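> agent: user asked for a holo structure of the chain below bound to S-adenosylmethionine. Plan: (1) validate sequence alphabet, (2) canonicalize SMILES, (3) run complex prediction with ligand conditioning, (4) return tokens. Step 1... ok. Step 2... ok. Step 3 dispatched.
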Amino acid sequence: MQIKQEKGHYTLYKENEAIGMAVVDGATILRLEIVPEWRGRGYGSYLVKELLRRGGGLDPKQTTRFTAPLPRDEAGRALARRFDFLPEGGRLVRRRVPDLSAVQLCHEFLEAHLTPGGLFLDATCGNGNDTLFLCSLAGQNGRVLGMDIQPQAVDRTNRRLKEAGYDKIGRAVLYDHARLGELVQPGKVDCVLFNFGWLPGAEHDIHSTADGSVPALRAALDALRPGGVLAAVLYSGKVIGDAEKQAALAFFRTLPLTKYTVLVCEFANWADTAPLPCFVIKK
Ligand SMILES: C[S@@+](CC[C@H](N)C(=O)[O-])C[C@H]1O[C@@H](n2cnc3c(N)ncnc32)[C@H](O)[C@@H]1O
């Protein structure tokens, strides 16, 4: 199967035969047809899916709004339903709004609680996204220290800090976060961020585990100043199991209310294995 595009005109070919076409203007599908003898075999779905994909409509991180004319027959209506097009104001509309991710929630929480000029730790720097984010919050007078047990994560984070012009604010070191207390003075840190699990894009066999993560959470709380925030995204699933998540939750639940506010922010209508953002504010 092949789709040839010339500006807003798409032609669907099976081998060398044109079996369908669509006319599209931006995110407006003006016309879509499959040659009658090829209908009912999934080619309409293939074409719609491809149009959506090319317009970002299948990307869960993008906000999109596609429109199409009202279908003339039941086959067209079934096709529209399959891709969540709904009748609205005399045409079909398909809207997608990105899901709030656990990491995004963490970032929004930290953005609301942290002020520039602080000392922030990224206890699992990985590919450096969180370290860069913390640098953007820390500003020129702040400091960010990232750490990871994998040299490629540390190198990549330091490279990205340099590229982003953040290398005066942040740096990453090869260090086990269970020993983060050796890197900072107790009670002086404004934020410690953990995004547990494995390094995205690398083999999954190196990942955080309960026996290191719980001491690291404890060390992070010792490092925080009063008013400081610990943020952690916990994971579970086939590869990583459930032990780390359960051990971290058990640890959070033992923390005395007189000293800590603890939030566990479950995505209640996702799978049980959905990433779990947790926050601890030191009183
Ligand atoms: C999900 S990734 C972190 C993503 C990262 N924050 C980013 O923005 O790209 C988890 C990272 O934790 C690291 N890690 C696992 N155990 C660790 C430990 N004991 N100390 C420090 N880092 C650890 C892994 O090597 C991996 O890079």
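> agent: step 4 complete. Summary for user: The pocket of S-adenosylmethionine is lined by residues 124-130, 147-150, 153, 176-178, 195, 197-199, 206-208, 212 (CB under 6 Å). The first helix runs from residue 43 to 54.
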